[in-house]
Amino acid sequence: MSAADFATLFAESALVEWPLTAALVAGMTVGFTVVWAVTRHTRRVARENADELIAVARREAAVAAEELKQKAEEEIQRRRNELTREFDQRVIDSEVRLREIRAHEESLALLDYQLEQRHERLNRENAAVKQARDAIRALSKSVRKRLEGVSQMDADEIRRALREEVLLECQDELRALRRETLEKSESELEAEAQRLLLATTQRLASKPNNDFTSTIVQLPSEELKGRIIGREGRNIKTFEAATGVTLLVDESPQTVLISCFDPVRRQVAHSALLALVKDGRIHPATIEEFVKRAQEEVEMSATRAGEEAVGRLNINGLHPEIIKLLGKLKFRFSYNQNVLDHSVETAFLASMIASEAGLDPDVAKRAGLLHDIGKAVSGEMEGSHAHIGAEFIKRYGETPIVVNAVAAHHEEVKPETVYAGLVILADTISAVRPGARAESMTSYVKRIERLEKLALSLDGVQQAFAIQAGREIRVVVAPETVTDDRARELAKELRRRIETELQYPSAIKITVIREQRFTETAT
């Protein structure tokens, strides 16, 4: 009840029974106060408990909600991943199926093309079969007619007719064989050629080059010049007439120069003059005697040199005149290379290459030795030394194979056998190998300088060095301005310019170097 109701009740009871009522009122007041205080305390405790329970419930609810949220997010993420995987798998499956479809389309297209090709081939084969059938029918008719005519032919006519028929039938096979031979891989041929050349050059040990035959005669005293000239030049005129050379007596101290294009005559004059100077009796009679003696000595020396060359090569059956003429090559030189030594070396090379290639080494050796014999023939004969030498050895019974190899070694005549090609190859190797031939120091230096200047004239070239006695040029380009492709083009351009603007023996290797270097120093 409320306080107002309680007060009203209390007033009404007070009027009835005041004393009793007053005590009761006092007791009730105290009890009400106590009850009110207890109730208020209880309510406060209950409210606090309720607030605490509400806070706990809220926290538990928040935790549960967070867990439910996490579970929901995990479930959503799981489902999303599953859907993503399923989508990726479907994409992959679709791409695979698309590829399969495309492959099937390509295979179908290929099958269509193959069917078309097969159809065309069948048509061609049918046409060929029809043509062959017609040809066979025509051939049978011709054979029938031919058989009818064979009865009236003799054995020689029948043999000739069969030969012509076989040749006609084998033409296709011969063309196929020729085409198969020509289509052989060039790389295999080049590798085989390199193997043969390496095996050949490794087996050959060449001696150093000789010097030119000396044409300068050293005199013991200056007085001998006058005696060589003689009264009114009789001695020198007699000497020149007997030897066929020109004797130059100039102001050079104690020196006489012999000049002649024929090396054999020059050698005869050299030997005769040395003998006259040593003997001291210089007059026309003794000059002719000593010149004749020198000619005999040179002839004997040439014959001995020819026999030694033939003996080194173990060649049999050469005519004595060929051996004698071959020995005269001892006195000839080409770029400081002795022609006789060059011929012997060419013979060895040709023989070894023939052995490696499965050919007859004796034939190759014989042709290689005789290939330059025309250089020793007298100068009155006209024509190149290859032609002259071939005619000379042909006159003394050499085989057509050797004669053609000698005549064709400078490709003035068409090579008819493989031995001519062997001689050409061996002659080239012997002439262009490093150190085979020499040139004057002045021309050599000029060629080296011109080679380097030619390389330096190209744009982008920083340095150029000619090495390997001028057989290689190394070019350093600026890496900032020259790219790799441009460096490759520079090498090709330099090769073209060298080939068109320079005269050089053998070959020149071109190396273009492009590099960048970065250097740091740690202190």
Protein model, in words:
The protein is mostly helical. It has 3 domains: 3-144; 216-432, Hypothetical protein af1432 (Orthogonal Bundle), CATH 1.10.3210; 441-513, GMP Synthetase, Chain A, domain 3, CATH 3.30.300. It has 16 helices and 8 strands. The chain has helices at residues 3-16, 18-150, 155-182, 186-203, 223-229, 234-243, 263-279, 284-313, 320-327, 339-357, 361-370, 385-395, 400-407, 418-432, 441-456, 484-501; strands at residues 216-218, 246-248, 255-259, 333-334, 337-338, 461-467, 472-477, 509-513. Helix 16 (484-501) links the parallel strand 7 and strand 8 (509-513). Helix 11 (361-370) packs across helix 14 (418-432), helix 12 runs antiparallel to helix 13 and helix 13 crosses helix 14 (418-432). 20% of the residues are buried.
Rg value: 58 Å
Strand pairing plus helix content: what structural class? mainly alpha
Share of β-strand residues: 5-15%
Helix-strand topology string: HHHHEHHEEHHHEEHHHHHHEEHE
